[in-house]
Specification:
By secondary structure, this protein is mainly α. The chain has seven helices and two strands, in the order αααααββαα. Helix content is 81%, strand content 4%. A two-stranded antiparallel sheet has the order 1-2.
Length: 167
């Protein structure tokens, strides 16, 4: 994941800087002066809270709940922004916005209830031991792949042993 962000940043730097300079010279997009001190504070705060902390919390939420629940929770920002508009800007949502928010909230609640019921009622028995379904979801892709290989490798060893006993 880190290499992806690095490649995106390098591409923006190498391709974006000359493109921005060309757009400035041609008059299509004028480069404004450097930000003031107050604007730098806002930019840094936005970068720290809007990017660094939010990415950390996103990855932490994925580790705690699973990728589906964490991804669906991001869609809740739409209904929450509507609530914030009502509380802070005194702008009530339109009927179309309310209708659009209903499936978003229902999908999150449904996925959370489904994930909770699956984690509490389903057990997976492997050669390594007994794991809840929620425990498997919390594993990384690499660990999940190794768990699957461990189960299948144990089955293959049992099959090889049975075939040796037949001969």
């Amino acid at each position: 994941m880190n290499i992806l962000f690095g490649v995106i940043g390098l591409t923006c730097l190498v391709a974006g800087t000359p493109l921005l300079y060309f757009l400035h010279i041609s008059g299509i997009e004028k480069i404004t002066p450097w930000p003031t001190e107050d604007e730098w504070v806002v930019l840094l705060a936005s970068g720290i809270f809007g990017t660094v902390i939010s990415d950390y919390l996103c990855l932490y939420a994925s580790a705690l709940t699973g990728s589906l629940t964490a991804s669906l929770s991001f869609t809740l920002s739409i209904p929450f922004s509507m609530i914030a508009d009502v509380l802070f800007r005194h702008r009530p949502p339109t009927s179309l916005q309310i209708i659009a928010a209903i499936p978003i909230v229902l999908s999150f609640v449904g996925a959370a209830l489904l994930g909770r019921s699956m984690a509490s009622s389903t057990n997976v028995v492997t050669g390594i031991g007994k794991l809840n379904a929620g425990d498997i979801e919390m594993k990384s892709d690499f660990e999940r792949e190794n768990l699957i290989h461990a189960v299948y490798d144990k089955d293959d060893e049992d099959d090889d042993e049975e075939s040796r006993n037949l001969v």
